[in-house]
Amino acid sequence: MYAVMEMADKRIDEEKRRLEALFRSLITRVAQNRDRQAFAQLFDHFAPRLKSFMMRKNASSELAEDLVQEAMIAVWTKAALYEGSKGSVTTWVFTIARNLRIDRIRRDVHMPMTELGDYDEPSEAPEGEELLGRKQEDGLVARALQAIPAEQRQILVLSFVEDMPQSEIASKLSIPLGTVKSRMRLAYGHLRRILETGL
Amino acid sequence: MKPNHHLDDSTLLAYAAGNLDEAFSVVAASHVAICPACRSAVRAAEALGGELLETAGALGISEDCRSRTFAALEQAALYRLPVAAPRPALPRALTQFLPVASLEDLAWKKKAPGVAIFDMKLHASAKGQLRLLRIGAGRAMPEHGHGGEEITMVLTGAYVDHMGRFAAGDVADLDEEIEHKPVVERDGDCICLVATERPTRFKSLAARLMQPFVGI
């Protein structure tokens, strides 16, 4: 049983590594050569996922496609800013889409999220940040998500995918706000442990 | 500046997910901008977002959306890596909401002896309240709990309470239940950025009577 799981883990890791390496080479081609074919491959992978992601956050199909369009254009225009040491291409696309969506909600171009990723500006990257890109590539984050107990994973999905604030999650699940927070802390603790130890 | 008091992990996750209320996001972003540990923590949380994007399903894209996107590429202005600039004195996440460049030049409203506030204007979608709080050197605040969520970041000066010393860059990301009695250090005013959900309620009667004036 354990050996089977290990093999499954290994397959996930290999698939992740292969995909991430492909995305990185496509982003590089977009950044350096304005390569439309490379962009089309990125579009075909990410646009349908972004659309689903937006619609799960209650966006209409029209708004979802609007945001997909904006996000994919940002992938094109910001490709030169992508820094592999700070995270995977998928995570970068996630932050772009998240920020655009917040902008849309606030109807304003300014927002306090701009400094967070620092994907948009050069920064002195501490060692911990340098490592994350590599570890994500190795599929550790995916593995962490699978290892997290279901009740904690559910909270992550409600927060990241369904876009629910903690208070809404609490009332949806009929649990105290403090329980939502402690499950988030536990889930995050699992992630950090797996990223740090690789187990 | 390496802060000693950090954001709660649950706050970091909500921030990375993009659904932390704007008032709290400004405080979180201001701290993250100067705290390498929390920056790396947010990146790890964002990686969860990336994985969940991969696994949250895929829906067909209309031909219209696809062709509009590709048509827009020609005219799209490209971003270049900006030249590294020295870190500003205050995080941009904060200064973009200030009408003037320096905290000294703000139109502070005196609320009580040694206490002044400045209300910050957020977007209409914000549910929380964001304000700057300036407390005079050596002042003690009445013991108070927080009627809801509250995150405070010290911008200048320092205060001490039973949880320790909070100096520039530190955040107090408190549970609702915690009551505290902050005392500002003697060598200067303490200016804090405070996001709250609801007005705080002070414990003692005298303090509660003062609340309409202090407004915190």
The first-to-last residue Cα distance of chain B is 28 Å
Query: Treating each run of at least 4 consecutive H or I residues as one helix, how many helices of chain A?
Result: 10
- How would you name the CATH homologous superfamily of the domain at 93-214 in chain B? Jelly Rolls
Poorly predicted spans of chain B: 212-216
Describe the structure.
The complex is a heterodimer of chains A (199) and B (216). Chain A is mostly helical and 199 residues long. Chain A has two domains: 2-125, Rna Polymerase Sigma Factor, Chain: A; 148-199, Winged helix-like DNA-binding domain superfamily/Winged helix DNA-binding domain (Arc Repressor Mutant, subunit A), CATH 1.10.10.10. Chain A has ten helices and no strands. Chain A has helices spanning 2-33, 36-56, 61-78, 89-106, 114-117, 127-137, 140-147, 150-161, 166-173, 177-197. The radius of gyration of chain A is 18 Å and the shape is globular. Chain A starts with a helix and ends with a helix. Chain B is α+β, with helices and mostly antiparallel strands and 216 residues long. Chain B has a domain at 93-214: Sandwich (Jelly Rolls), CATH 2.60.120.10. Chain B has six helices and nine strands. Chain B has helices at 9-17, 22-34, 36-55, 63-72, 92-95, 205-214; strands at residues 109-112, 115-119, 129-135, 150-156, 158-161, 164-167, 171-174, 183-184, 190-196. A six-stranded antiparallel β-sheet of chain B has the order 1-2-3-9-4-7. In chain B, helix 1 crosses helix 3 (36-55) and helix 2 packs across helix 3. Chain B is elongated. The two termini of chain B are 28 Å apart. The interface between A and B is large, with 84 and 70 residues.
